[in-house]
Each structure stands twice: as structure tokens, then as C-alpha cells.
Amino acid sequence: MEVVGEAAGGHEAVQLAKRVLPDVVLMDVQMPEGGGIEATRSIIASNPECKVIILTTFDQEEYVYDGIRSGAVGYLLKGAAPEELVDTVRAAWKGEAIFRTTVAAKVIGQIFHSSQALQQETDLTTAAQRIESLTERELEVLQQMAYGLRNEEIAKKLYIGESTVKTHVHRIIQKFDVEDRTQAVVIAIRNRIVH
């Protein structure tokens, strides 16, 4: 893991990210010269492979919601232990979504139940076919993925082996025809198939 850049404001972060093409960005919410949410949108628009983690002192629903809408794959408080920060960066790099603050679960629940949270997938037939192709166990694993749990945590929660979880995650990604688990979770949110 290597730090490849540091920016003092939102606009600077966007320009720096375009130059160094980072794998993962830790983004503050409130910064001078363009906030972190706007910067997150811009960075992901120019580099869709980049994973952005919101790192902030504010555990507020509005920021979690806006972070998810902007494309961030994680939301972590600055008071988190150093090991948790490192684990979150590694998880984001692997394509995992990590939202572990006090209000994150509540906000994710609101997104699942809000028809205005994300635009419906344009090809509803394809979306319906993807959803119908999931087994009951795959739906359970997808639910836990949506809550930001890692494979080992899903395994413990569902009383199955970690290798079995990896197999289910792989099948979900294949069935949804996406590149990583974050994109699979986005489809689940868009179609309200997780709660």
C-alpha cells in the first residue's frame, strides 16, 4: 500500500486523481474549494475503477446517503482504529462496500425502500431475469454484502464456510454481469431486492 498523493481541497483532489490514477481515495466530506461529495462524483466519472471511501468526523444520514449516491464504496469515521482504516482500504480495493457507522445501516435501509433513491435499471426485463436467477442462498449472501459485510463475516452470520461465500459472491457477480461486488449491490439497491 502506497500513498500517492494528498490534496487540501475538493478541486485539487479531482485534479490530482486524474494525474496519479489512484486505486483507492480517502475523501473528507467538508473541504475548501469543492466538497468531498462533489469531488467523489468527479473522480469516479473520470476514473470508474477508482474506489472512494468517505472518511469524516460527521456520522450523519445526509452524508452517508450522499456518499452512496456519489459512488463511494465506504463510509468511515476519522476516529476509527488504524487497523480498521487499513482493512477498509484493502476491502474497497477488492471491490467490497464498507459502511460501518452508527447511521449507515439505517440509511442503507432507507435507500432500499425508496423508489427515488436510485433510478430504476432501464432494461427491466434483464433486471427481472437477473433477480429471478438468484438462489435463496445467493439472495441471503447479497443481503449481507449490501450491509458491507466481508466474506468471513458473512460466513459466520450464515453458518457456512468462507469458500462457500466466495462461490456465492462469484456467482452473483456472474449472474448480474458486473465486475465486482459493489456493482452487484448497486443493482440490488436499484431494484429493491435487498432490505
TrEMBL record:
Keywords: DNA-binding, Phosphoprotein, Transcription, Transcription regulation. Residues 1-93 form the Response regulatory domain. The keyword Acyltransferase does not apply. Signal peptide: none annotated. InterPro entries: CheY-like_superfamily (IPR011006), NreC/VraR/RcsB-like_REC (IPR058245), Sig_transdc_resp-reg_receiver (IPR001789), Tscrpt_reg_LuxR_C (IPR000792), WalR-like (IPR039420). The modification 4-aspartylphosphate is found at D28. Residues 127-192 form the HTH luxR-type domain. PROSITE patterns: HTH_LUXR_1, HTH_LUXR_2, RESPONSE_REGULATORY. PANTHER family: TRANSCRIPTIONAL REGULATORY PROTEIN NARL-RELATED, TWO-COMPONENT RESPONSE REGULATOR. This is Transcriptional regulatory protein YxjL. It comes from Brevibacillus reuszeri.
